[in-house]
Recover the amino acids of this structure.
């Protein structure tokens, strides 16, 4: 993943879309996500972020649930909702 700290900052303020490969199927997953309480509709408190960890936990907007992905499987990410929804 390019610039994980910037990604984290982006999703704390708003929405970002992350595109990654699922581990078991190699399927491309396009996931809009956030760590912003107002957008998620739940209380979110990020206490810390381990830059050495390969796992990132986010609020998945299209599933309305917590999801995680491996940073090493990310192909790209960008600010905002998925491009195909524009």
């Amino acid at each position: 993943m390019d610039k994980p700290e910037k990604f984290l900052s982006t999703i704390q303020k708003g929405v970002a879309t992350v595109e990654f490969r699922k581990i078991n199927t190699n399927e491309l997953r396009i996931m809009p996500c956030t760590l912003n309480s107002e957008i998620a509709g739940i209380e979110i408190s990020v206490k810390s972020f381990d830059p050495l960890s390969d796992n990132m936990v986010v609020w998945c907007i299209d599933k309305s649930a917590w999801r995680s992905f491996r940073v090493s499987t990310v192909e790209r990410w960008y600010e905002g909702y998925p491009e195909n929804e524009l």
Q: What stands out?
A: The first helix runs from residue 4 to 13. The CA atoms of residues 43 and 54 lie 24 Å apart.
